[in-house]
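Good morning,

Attaching, inline, the backbone tokens for the sequence recovery test we're adding to the shared suite. The designed sequence is right after.
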């Protein structure tokens, strides 16, 4: 195993890391579900989903001058003519209800809860640094799908709190500022060699969870970094020193 430096803070990816789920299957089920919800609400589902995807594309190239939330809804409103605030309120009911049916694709791994409990007991600061293209309600829901409690984390990144996305280094730098830590104090735990690997470029150490590994083009090489199954990561946490 690669050498371990002292950390104070552990950042976690969510989908495919703490939450055992196939990211591509999740995104497909999610977009189909959201489109069906839009149709059931009497909206033009094709137009809504087209605007949704345009908003996602806009967030992917956010220049950091506004939150992903504001950029998404500005793009969505321009594409559909629908009032952004009213539509956002409507979408809230989706994330509180139909969205949770997508949880059927996930199977909580007890190793996730074990790792979090171990790190908390040892005094580490924990945060969920998931792709910040979702509302906070949607992130909290997925943390619940993983059998975890959002209150276990100092913060989770969502589209209202972030001005960048993975794999931009700026996303991780922003999360580090929010946590009040230097990059050298951070261990990033993720399953995507490109998106999560960008944390390493920001100066953090990294551990790749291999159960649902995604080897993105231009990403880091797994063999050159700490890696293992979620169960192996839980054992890794047991070997970390307690924080003073």
């Amino acid at each position: 195993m690669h050498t371990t430096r002292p950390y104070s803070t552990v950042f976690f990816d969510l989908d495919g890391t703490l939450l055992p789920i196939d990211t591509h299957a999740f995104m497909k089920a999610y977009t189909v579900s959201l489109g069906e919800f839009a149709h059931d609400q009497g909206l033009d589902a094709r137009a809504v989903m087209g605007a949704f995807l345009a908003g996602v594309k806009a967030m992917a190239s956010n220049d950091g001058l506004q939150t992903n939330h504001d950029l998404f809804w500005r793009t969505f409103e321009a594409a559909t003519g629908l009032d952004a605030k009213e539509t956002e309120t409507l979408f809230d009911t989706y994330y509180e209800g139909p969205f949770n049916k997508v949880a059927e694709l996930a199977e909580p791994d007890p190793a996730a809860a074990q790792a979090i409990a171990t790190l908390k007991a040892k005094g580490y600061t924990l945060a969920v640094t998931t792709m910040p293209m979702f509302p906070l309600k949607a992130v909290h829901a997925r943390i619940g799908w993983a059998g975890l409690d959002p209150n276990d984390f100092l913060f989770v990144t969502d589209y209202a709190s972030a001005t960048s996305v993975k794999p931009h280094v700026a996303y991780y730098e922003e999360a580090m500022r929010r946590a009040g830590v230097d990059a050298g104090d951070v261990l990033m735990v993720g399953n995507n060699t490109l998106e999560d690997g960008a944390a390493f470029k920001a100066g953090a150490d990294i551990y790749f969870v291999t159960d649902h590994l995604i080897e993105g083009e231009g990403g880091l090489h797994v063999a050159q970094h700490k890696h293992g199954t979620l169960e192996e990561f839980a054992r890794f946490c047991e070997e970390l020193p307690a924080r003073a």
